[in-house]
Design brief:
The structure holds three protein chains of three kinds.
Chain A lengths: L1 H32 L6 H17 L4 H24 L7 H23 L4 E2 L9 E4 L2 E4 H23 L1 H11 L1 H6 L4 H26 L2 E2 L5 H14 L4 H19 L1 H7 L12 H16 L14
Antiparallel strand pairs in A: 1-4, 2-3
Helix pairs in contact in A: 1-5, 1-8, 1-9, 1-10, 2-3, 2-4, 2-8, 2-9, 3-8, 5-6, 5-8, 6-8, 9-10, 9-12, 10-12
Chain B lengths: L1 H7 L12 E12 L2 E12 L3 E5 L6 H8 L7 E6 L2 E5 L6 H7 L1 E3 L12 H8 L8 H5 L4 H18 L14 H13 L5 E5 L7 H17 L3 E5 L3 H7 L2 E6 L2 E6 L1 H6 L1 H8 L5
Parallel strand pairs in B: 3-8, 3-9, 6-7, 7-8
Antiparallel strand pairs in B: 1-2, 1-4, 4-5, 9-10
Helix pairs in contact in B: 4-7, 6-7, 8-9
Chain C lengths: L6 H23 L5 H25 L7 H16 L5 H4 L14 H23 L4 H20 L4 H4 L5 E2 L9 E2 L5 E3 L4 H18 L2 H11 L1 H6 L4 H27 L1 E2 L6 H14 L4 H18 L8 E2 L2 E2 L7 H16 L24
Antiparallel strand pairs in C: 1-4, 2-3, 5-6
Helix pairs in contact in C: 2-8, 2-11, 2-12, 2-13, 3-5, 3-6, 3-11, 5-11, 9-11, 12-13
The chains are: A mainly alpha, B alpha/beta, C mainly alpha.
């Protein structure tokens, strides 16, 4: 039984870690701007495509990986300045529509550049190597991911709680107007948030596409949505919440992928039910349940509207 | 400092009057987390009265209104309308059902329907009293009702003197007229009790004076009972039958305008407690 | 009482009548393969879907992203119930001819498509409509994804044909009247979608102009004030959600007729986004805007901007940048420009009759 479940569990932890890195971007932006950045999943995809083209140009990997992360952070910065900043005083719906527009634009831009073809992600040495853990064979990236996620989250939490910019971030997410009145430079705080979020999505993309090594313009849509669900599940605005939520979703979805095999080997079903296709649907069902039962998520704070 | 003065305040009990009680608050308390916005507030309004609720900023006046109109559910205490419980710690209705009972309100920070004309703002408030259903309305088979509603809406606009502006966007009106439109809109829901939240805010002395006469006029014309929050003391003293005073959420005085005006506790609350 | 001028309404009716007459005439005169008809058919379909989305997003202020899901339900219901019995073994070849062995008339199936979508809207609305704007958006989006997976599930195969396509049901071309030899005598394949969309959009306009329409707009403008004026939020939001989904379902059925095949994998989130962007370009809160923008969008993407996707050689010079996908890039840029700089879209909140009226005062800022 354990031998059957373990490989699914392992890849669940791995993909959960990758979702976590995307989810942090969602949760930080929402915490500050109250905006679902629909384009965030596409920034993640763009990071993948940028890597493909940089690697193809012959730049050695030890330069190309940091380069990709820097470019991705810059992409996030530019998107915020161009598409969200002008709408800061507009109704919330406008900003959300703009985010959808950016998502549409990024996908179409990549479609144009790649011709809509699947692009092979470069093989990154060491983390692409196979390794055997107990009953499962997997890539090194599977083990690297959760470790790296925890390190990055600790660093981020330290940044937010110890540094000046972190303090400003907390102030802005608590009360936008007051923070502005107190002389906090709102625009630089927001830009920093987007840079950090995009940087982490870039890290996530390196790990994710090492596991699933093809990139196409729609590659970011599903992981993006799932990471968003993870952020809501954990309590939007909460970084630890997003990480915990992402791991739970990653693990659950992989267990569902393997449910037919697991049930069959356990002798509970005689023929496969084709349940694997529900791995995506599960995430959304979870979202709806969470929103109805506890809209603030696992670690979210309650807010009240003023009349 | 503030804690000291908060402890000094003594809750003053409600005084019985002879009339037929329309609205009664029975030991109403509203708490948000650690903040007690309204604290053990009992009061009543009789049919045909104009009763004012006054108090310094942040005294909990609007919160009391929001409890009556069911925007908030009280933490403790009861709200009775014509002797029937309409809100309490156990009972919560959506605000539209309170309006259906005959309690209409205006808002401190004007909440008109910004995308609609002045006329449509009034028509919208009549939706509640319509007898026709979705099908007859969509197929426009409710001609008679629609015609009557339009007439009533027009009369209401005449009452507030806004007929000229009927087809303009509600938010294009000057501030004072927006307040009048809000009152007309509230009247369109056919209330028996009208709650006015700072109706004279932002008006000059002359406009305030006119507003006072206007409130008395609509009270008589529409057979209303009026409960209002107001800061303009001249207006309050001119038209109110009785006054309740809140400070830090507690009722500190009540009575006729003369009684309240001379009450040392009220004077202290407004001027700030200086002797300690 | 004041008197309203009848002139704008009369002019509007004349314009609509002229358009319908022109569509009918064009269809009899021009070759049926003309690109114009592709644009008109798909445009009419999108117009209905965009208006139904506008009813929800623009007039009720509910930001829903479930449109593609409700269209898919409509498309499937229509297709499932209209495939002729003799074609079923071919279509459902992997599922022994499928579960359903009868077919309904097209009109009945269209209504059923709408009702099915409205029914699902009712169910999903119970939990979802209580949510705030952006949460509601993501929950409805999630719902559409769940439905898409459910339809493709192998165990649903006898009903939905799983992930295989449904086909051979009546399409727009089947509305043409033919003589005994099978030759077309009267072309109706464009007029009929215009009629279906026209009737549906007409009903939506009637709704918007009724007391219920005002109630919905009041919710959009200020929920708290609407509730204080006695409007039951839950009831009216549910109503708007179900009605919008009904017409999205009918629109989905029309899309099925247009495409002649139905497959769940096409009803993606991207489709919802596309319709949302059409609504934004037309003007959030304008039926006329949604209709205009649908035809413009379809015409631009299917016809006018097609050249951007192909290599163009002028003289001996190859025009740079032009190749597959460039059209969509240009499109995206136009959309972003509208979203950022022309937020009111083509029409703002005005309608066709408003264009014949005197101008209203603008709101004081």
């Amino acid at each position: 039984m354990w031998d059957t479940v373990f490989p699914y569990l392992l890849s669940g932890i791995s993909v959960g870690g990758q979702y976590a890195l995307i989810a942090i971007g969602y949760t930080m932006v929402y915490g500050i701007l109250r905006l679902i950045n629909f384009a965030h999943g596409d920034v993640f995809m763009a990071a993948g495509i940028i890597m493909v083209y940089i690697a193809a140009s012959g730049i050695p990997l030890w330069i190309s990986v940091p380069l990709v992360l820097i470019i991705t952070a810059a992409v996030g910065f530019v998107i915020e300045r161009v598409a969200y900043k002008p709408l800061r005083s507009a109704p919330r719906m406008s900003a959300m529509i703009s985010a959808i527009g950016v998502s549409y634009t990024l996908q179409n831009l990549v479609l144009y550049i790649t011709g809509g073809l699947n692009k092979q992600y470069p093989t990154i040495p060491v983390i692409s190597d196979s390794v055997r853990i107990g009953p499962a064979t997997t890539k090194v990236v599977t083990i690297v991911t959760p470790v790296l996620v925890i390190l990055l989250v600790v660093a981020l939490v330290l940044l937010i709680s110890k540094t000046k910019i972190g303090m400003a971030m907390r102030a802005v997410s608590k009360d936008f107007e007051t923070a502005q009145l107190m002389g906090i430079k709102i625009n630089s705080v927001i830009s920093t948030t987007f840079v950090i979020g995009s940087f982490l999505a870039g890290v996530g993309s390196v790990l994710y596409f090492t596991n699933y090594p093809t990139v196409i313009q729609t590659s970011g849509a599903m992981p993006g949505l799932k990471a968003f669900v993870a952020a809501v599940f954990g309590g939007i605005g909460s970084i630890p919440g997003a990480v915990v939520g992402a791991f739970i979703i990653g693990i659950m979805e992989n267990l569902i992928k393997g449910l037919d095999v697991i049930l069959f080997k356990a002798g509970l079903v005689s023929k496969p039910l084709g349940l694997a296709i529900f791995s995506d649907a599960f995430t959304f069902a979870l979202l709806i349940i969470i929103l109805v039962v506890k809209p603030t998520g696992l670690f979210g704070e309650k807010t009240t509207d003023k009349v | 400092m503030s804690e000291m003065s908060e402890m000094d305040i003594r809750t003053v009990p409600d005084m019985k009057t002879d009339g037929e009680t329309v609205l009664q608050l029975d030991h109403l308390t509203m708490q948000f987390g650690g903040v007690i916005a309204v604290n053990d507030f009992s009061m009543h309004i009789d049919r045909g009265e104009i009763v004012a609720l006054i108090g310094p900023n942040g005294a909990g006046k609007t919160t009391a209104f929001n409890c009556v109109t069911s925007v908030y559910q009280p933490t403790r205490g009861r709200i009775l309308f014509h002797g029937k419980e309409i809100g309490s710690e156990r009972m919560h209705r959506t605000p539209d059902r309170i309006t259906a009972l005959g309690i209409a309100r205006t808002f401190q920070n004007i909440r008109l329907f910004s995308g609609m004309t002045v006329f449509d703002n009034i028509m919208t408030a009549m939706h509640l009293r319509r007898k026709s259903n979705l099908f007859t309305q969509v197929l426009h088979l409710n001609g008679e009702e629609e015609r009557k509603n339009r007439e009533t809406a027009w009369k209401l606009l005449e009452t507030v003197g806004l007929t000229e502006a009927a087809e303009e966007l509600a938010t294009s009106l000057p501030y004072g007229k927006q307040r009048l439109l809000e009152i007309a809109r509230a009247l369109a829901t056919e209330p028996t009790l009208l709650l006015l939240d700072e109706p004279a805010a932002g008006m000059n002395p002359q406009e305030t004076d006119e507003l006072g006469q206007f409130i008395v006029r609509i009270k008589n014309e529409f057979n209303l009972t009026v409960f209002m929050i107001e800061h303009h003391m001249n207006l309050v003293m001119d038209i109110s039958d009785r006054i309740y005073v809140l400070d830090f959420g507690r009722p500190i005085a009540n009575g006729t305008p003369e009684e309240v005006q001379q009450n040392p506790v009220v004077i202290a609350a407004y001027l700030g407690v200086e002797e300690e | 009482m004041r008197k309203k001028s009848r002139k704008p309404a009369v002019l509007t009716w004349i314009i609509v009548a002229v358009i319908y007459a022109a569509v009918f005439a064009a269809e009899q005169l021009l070759p049926p393969s003309s690109m114009l008809f592709t644009v008109l058919k798909k445009g009419a379909t999108y117009a209905l879907v965009a208006v139904s989305m506008n009813l929800l997003n623009g007039f009720t202020g509910i930001f829903s992203l479930g449109q593609a899901g409700f269209m898919m339900i409509g498309a499937y219901v229509y297709a499932i119930f209209t495939i002729p019995a003799e074609s079923r073994p071919v279509v459902y070849q992997y599922y022994d001819g499928g579960l359903i062995q009868f077919s309904l008339p097209v009109v009945v199936a269209l209504v059923l498509a709408g009702l099915a979508a409205a029914f699902f809207a009712f169910l999903i609305g119970l939990p979802v409509l209580r949510l705030k704007s952006d949460y509601l958006a993501i929950a409805t989006l999630g719902f559409a994804e769940i439905m898409r997976v459910l339809i493709q599930w192998n165990n649903m195969g006898p009903l939905t044909n799983g992930s295989n396509m449904l086909r051979l049901y009546p399409s727009f071309n089947d509305f043409n009247i033919r003589n005994a030899n099978g030759e077309v005598t009267v072309y109706l394949s464009t007029l009929v979608p215009f009629l279906i969309a026209g009737v549906c959009i007409g009903l939506i306009v009637l709704l918007l102009n009724s007391g219920y329409g005002r109630a919905l707009k009041s919710i959009r403008d200020d929920e708290i004030a609407a509730e204080a004026m006695g409007i039951n939020l839950a009831h009216h939001k549910r109503l708007s959600f179900c009605i919008s989904s009904f017409f999205a379902g009918v629109g989905g059925a029309m899309l099925a007729m247009y495409q002649t095949t139905v497959q769940a994998k096409f009803f993606t989130t991207a489709m919802t986004y596309e319709i949302l962007l059409i609504v934004v370009i037309g003007g959030v809160g304008s039926v006329t805007g949604s209709v205009l923008s649908s035809f413009l969008f379809v015409a631009a993407s299917e016809w006018w901007l097609r050249f951007l996707d192909e290599k163009q050689i002028i003289g001996s010079l190859e025009v740079p940048l032009l190749r597959n996908g460039f059209r969509l890039v240009v499109f995206s840029i136009i959309i972003m420009v509208v979203v950022l700089f022309f937020r009111k879209g083509i029409m703002g909140t005005r309608e066709l009759p408003d264009l014949f009226r005197e101008k209203r005062k603008e709101a004081v800022k």
